[in-house]
Design goal:
heterodimer, A: about 500 residues, mainly alpha, 21 helices, about 0% strand, B: about 150 residues, 2 domains, 6 helices, flat
Chain lengths: ~500, ~150
């Protein structure tokens, strides 16, 4: 169970001195990153990890949590004002947000979006604080075979659910798995796939790779398209919603909060799915579904609430089991590791105070972005018009500095640039990047626990089929893989049929 | 503009996978075998076999004309800009440690914004000079993160 005393002290730590400043700055930058179409929460966290190197672990983590929650919320601002989602997760907010803006209710839409995101985010952060210790306590019973099964489950689901083509997802994930094997063998200690380079004997540096794949690749993509987002003409008035506005959205919150949480916990699907499901469910249950899509405040509330309600669910398996559910939490996990905090059940044993500070940080971050969002709505709206000719070079130099600053070696910089190019090519040709990164984390976990399991059983493979938890998780992995591959194939067939109908 | 198929790319990728997988088999053949811990080659070789199978599927799908299409927003995009930026970034990466962060950062930022189409010279120069200096000061003094100094700064 959550230790209320530790949580209380966690709030004390998070809301004092530098930590509070870091939280506010993180949320502020997060909203800016989210509001600019083309920049994602994952990219924001990857870019700003280097800024946390000189900070204490909790200051750095709190800042990154601020960026994470702020960016997820901020995506809705562009959706409402220019009908272009700031982040992929905010696409559902376009349906009713933009029609509201066209009716001259842009301020009201942003106000409802802000409060709704705050409600969803705070709910999920409270759930995280409540459920994480229980799950971590249960996970203490896990041994190598269970961790192997968990990593296999996470990998299989992530690989098959990412992108438009399951085969491309599989190739991306398996390549990531191979990259994870570069360096020393986890049991034997001999070098593998290093090509004689001493720089690679410790494996590929994770953070430069992350920055390259998520930030630099997106930078190259922006160079190619030089997004010309439409300029904002809407005037923002009456941003603070009335009590009646919020009261009318309560049914949407009651649906979106649990949907977001459950979707967040499920590996490989995150804020975007949560927002769409919440929107669809609220529309289905509404007495006037025909008003949805024409500027219905409950539509904005459901999408934004569901989107932010997924954040705590995403963090839950990462912090308790060391298994990131999506790309964003994979980057957060990398940041925790850099600050010598290895996510997993032992984190709750060895750093219970820090874990509760993280919970307090997550709850506070969701309140801070609401305050900032309401206070600076007009400023964040103007940020969307930022000149890309200056923004993109800034992203590049931040990537370079970030990659170099970790170990102060040129090799990390080269790693970042190479993975940046690889990531760009992958983005361009529809190879999902997330499986490659998740395979980096889960691959090494899978391999080392596979080998440890065999050591435990003297080389007998039956160890994976005689432990109930392992069998259940492995069966789930097989089941979800088959189901998701079939579903994606059906979707592809439908897409092909539609194109054929259109004569393309 | 009609959608452009990724058929060629899919075929190239599936063919590129073959030498990678062959190398996995070649190198893993030289690894020592440690008794009782499971063969160290199982996971990488298993991965390589799965990768080959996935590449084969991609190849077959491409030949059957079932490749995905390039998103419409990218169909007419200017790739020469990407090439220029890649060259600039490569040059910057290699020279930064020798020449210093600011000495390389100024021409890099100038060239970058220029390639992206910025032609307002005063803004361009202010941006190119200001960003590396501000970044250097922020990281060195405020965040205590060292940056390369090289022959200059």
């Amino acid at each position: 169970m959550v230790d209320l005393n530790l949580l209380y002290h966690g709030f004390g730590t998070v809301l004092s001195g530098y930590n509070l400043i870091a939280l506010v700055l993180g949320s502020f930058f997060g909203i800016i990153i989210g509001a600019i179409p083309g920049l994602t929460a994952t990219m924001g966290i990857a870019l700003l990890i280097p800024f946390t190197f000189g900070m204490t672990p909790i200051t750095g983590i709190v800042m990154l949590l601020g960026i994470y929650t702020g960016a997820i919320y901020g995506g809705g601002i562009a959706s409402i004002l220019i009908n272009t989602p700031g982040t992929p997760a905010a696409a559902a907010s376009c349906f009713d947000g933009y029609p509201m803006a066209k009716k001259g209710l842009a301020g009201k839409a942003i106000g409802i979006a802000t409060i709704s995101s705050g409600i969803g985010g705070t709910f999920t952060a409270l759930c995280l604080a409540f459920f994480a210790p229980i799950l971590a306590n249960f996970a203490l019973r896990f041994s190598a075979p269970e961790y192997f099964a968990l990593a296999t489950f996470g990998l299989s689901v992530t690989i098959t659910l990412s992108g438009r083509s399951p085969v491309k997802g599989v190739i991306s994930g398996l390549m990531g798995l191979l990259i994870a094997m570069i360096g020393l063998d986890p049991i034997g200690g001999f070098q593998r796939f290093t090509f004689g380079l001493t720089e690679m004997s410790g494996g590929i540096s994770f953070v430069p790779m992350l920055i390259g794949l998520f930030a630099l690749s997106e930078g190259f993509h922006q160079v190619e398209v030089i997004l010309s987002a439409p300029r904002i003409s809407a005037k923002l008035n009456n941003i603070l919603p009335t009590f009646q506005d919020i009261k009318s959205c309560i049914p949407a919150y009651l649906r979106a909060c649990p949907i977001g949480l459950i979707v967040g916990i499920t590996p490989a699907i995150g804020a975007d799915t949560a927002a769409f499901l919440s929107y669809a469910e609220t529309k289905r249950a509404s007495k006037h579904p025909e008003t949805f899509g024409t500027g219905e405040p409950a539509g904005v509330a459901a999408a934004q609430c569901g989107e932010n309600a997924s954040t705590g669910g995403d963090v839950l398996p990462m912090i308790t089991l060391g298994i990131p559910g999506d790309a964003c939490t994979a980057v957060l996990m990398g940041a925790l590791t850099i600050h010598n905090l290895q996510p997993g059940p032992m984190l709750f044993q060895n750093h219970a105070d820090t874990v509760h500070q993280i919970f307090a940080g997550m709850i506070s971050a969701n309140i801070v972005f609401v305050i900032l969002g309401l206070l600076f709505a007009r400023f964040f709206a103007k940020v969307i018009n930022i000149d890309r000719k200056f923004l993109v070079p800034l992203i590049f130099i931040a990537c370079m500095v970030g990659s170099y600053a970790i170990n102060n070696v040129l090799f990390d910089l080269i790693t970042c640039v190479i993975f940046g190019m690889i990531g760009y090519i992958m983005l361009r040709f529809d190879f999902p990047v997330a499986p490659m990164v998740l395979a980096q984390i889960l691959g090494s976990m899978m391999e080392s626990n596979f080998r440890r399991s065999l050591s435990m059983s003297q080389g007998d493979f039956l160890i994976f089929f005689t432990r109930p938890i392992t069998v259940i998780i492995l069966a789930l992995a097989v089941f979800t893989t088959i189901v998701s591959v079939r579903r994606q194939n059906q979707a592809l067939k439908q897409e092909a049929e539609q194109m054929a109908k259109l004569g393309i | 503009m009609p959608p452009i198929s990724m058929k060629k790319v899919d075929i190239i990728v599936s063919l590129l996978v073959i030498p990678i997988c062959l190398y996995v088999f070649y190198e893993s053949a030289r690894w020592p075998v440690i008794a009782g811990t499971g063969n160290a080659t199982w996971v990488p070789r298993g991965d390589a076999v799965c990768l080959l199978a996935a590449a084969f599927l991609l190849f077959v799908e491409a030949l059957r004309g079932r490749s995905l299409t390039i998103p419409s927003r990218l169909a007419g995009a200017d790739r020469s800009r990407v090439l220029w930026i890649a060259v600039l970034t490569g040059a910057y990466t290699i020279t930064m440690e020798y020449l210093g962060f600011i000495a390389t950062g100024v021409p890099y930022m100038f060239g970058f914004a220029f390639v992206l189409g910025e032609r307002r010279w005063v803004r361009l120069i202010l941006f190119a000079v200001g960003v590396p200096i501000a970044t250097y000061i922020l990281f060195r003094t405020a965040l205590h993160v060292p940056l390369p100094e090289g022959w200059f700064i």
